[in-house]
Structures
1.
Amino acid sequence: MIIQTIVLAVCLIGQPLTCKDVNLLVSPEFGASLQLPFWCAKQGQIEAQNWSTSNPNWHIEKWSCPPNDKKGVKI
C-alpha cells in the first residue's frame, strides 16, 4: 500500500493570522497517485472536507499533494 500526503494550509477562524500546515496521510484508491492532478483534486477535496468537519474552528486556505520527498519544501 502506498501512502501519500495531502498538505492543508489552515488558519484559525477567530485569529486569521494564526496559521499552520496539516499533513494528512492517505492511500489513493486502486494504486492511483496523488501526483496526478485529477486524483489530488478529487481526494484533496474529500480529505479537506473530512478534516474541516472535525476541526470547525479552522479555515482551509488551500491544499496540495506534494511528492513525499518534497513535503515542507516551499516551491
2.
Amino acid sequence: MAHYGRPFRADQVGSYVRPDALMKAREQAARGTITKQDLRALEDTCIRDIVALQEGIGLKCVTDGEFRRGSWNKDFLAGFDNIVERPGNLKVFHRNPDGSPAVQISGWAVTGKIRHSQSIQVDDFKFLKGVAHVTPKTCMPSPTLLHFRGGRQAIDRAAYPDIDQFFADAAATYREEIDALYAAGARYVQLDDTNFAYLCDPDFREAAKAMGEDPPKLVDTYIALVNGAIRQRPKDLLVAIHLCRGNLSTAGAATGGYEVIGPTLFPGLDVDAYFLEYDDERAGGFNPLKDVPKDKFVVLGLITTKRSDLESKDALKRRIEAAAKVVPLERLCLSPQCGFASAASTQGRMTVADEMAKLRLLVETAAEVWGEA
C-alpha cells in the first residue's frame, strides 16, 4: 500500500453536542413549521461556531460536528437509492451499565439496485471547507453497514440473485461519493465502522451465525468491500477507519479484544490509519496492535465520550507509553474513543463545556507526548 500521510497527533472522531436551538429547529422542520432553508441557515451558523471552537482549542483538523445529521449513519445511507431503514435481523443490543439490553441494533434493507444518483455530502463538505482554516475532515459510515445488520435476508433477491454483485455495487457507490468529495477538495476521509469491532464480540458472532452468516468469512468479505470502496483513490487522499463498539448507550454494545480480527484486518485493509476505541476494558490490551503494518498509523481512542468526568493526563501518558511498546510512538496518535454525540438520542450526556474540556486535554497531552504544538 502506498503511504498517503497520517492523522494528526491530536485528532477527533467527528460528532459534537448539538446546540439546543438546532435540535429545536430540526423538530420544527420535521413538523413543517419552518422551511428546509431556515434549518440549513441555522446549521450554517452552528457549524461556523463549532469549527471556531475546534480551531480555538488547537485542533489541526475539524469536522462540521455532524450538525446536519440526526444520526452518524442514517442520514448518509438513506442518500443512496433503494436503501431503507428497517428493524435489523441481528438480534443484539446496546447495553445498559448493568449489562442488560437497552436498544436493539438498528438495521437496513436493500430494496433494489444500489445507485448513487446524487452526491450525499459534497455540498456539506464545501461549506465546511469554506469556513475552516485548518484541514476539514469528512466522516461517513462504512459500507459494511449495508449488509451486517440485515444479512442476506435484507437484500432483495430479485435485484441481487448474486450476492457478489451486491458487494460490487456497494463499493462502486461509495467510490463515486468519495470521488465527488475529492473533486470538491476533500483530502481526509474517515469511515466509521461498527461491524469489525462487533465481530470481536462472541455474542455478535453468534447472532451473525443465527442470521445465516459465517463470522470469519464476513471479516474477509468486509475487508474486500471497504478496499473496493477506496480502490485507486488519489495518492494525496488520507483514509482512516474508526472501529466503533457502539456509542448510543453509556455501556456501549460490543466487547472483545482486537486479537479476534487483528491478524486479518490490520494488514488486510488498505487504509492509512485505524482509530481504535481503548477507553475501557471492553477492547482488551494493546498486544493485537503487533499486526498493524509499519506503513499504517494507530489513533488511540483513550478519552471517553460516554462520561463527562475528565481523564488524568498522567494516566493517558502511561497508556500511550504502553501502546508504544507494541507500535512505535511515531506511528501513534491520540483521540477520543468516539464522537461526542453520535446521534440526537445521545444529547444530554455531556455539555459543550464538558466536550471542550476533553478536547483541551487531548491537545495538551498530544503536545507534551509528541512535542507538536
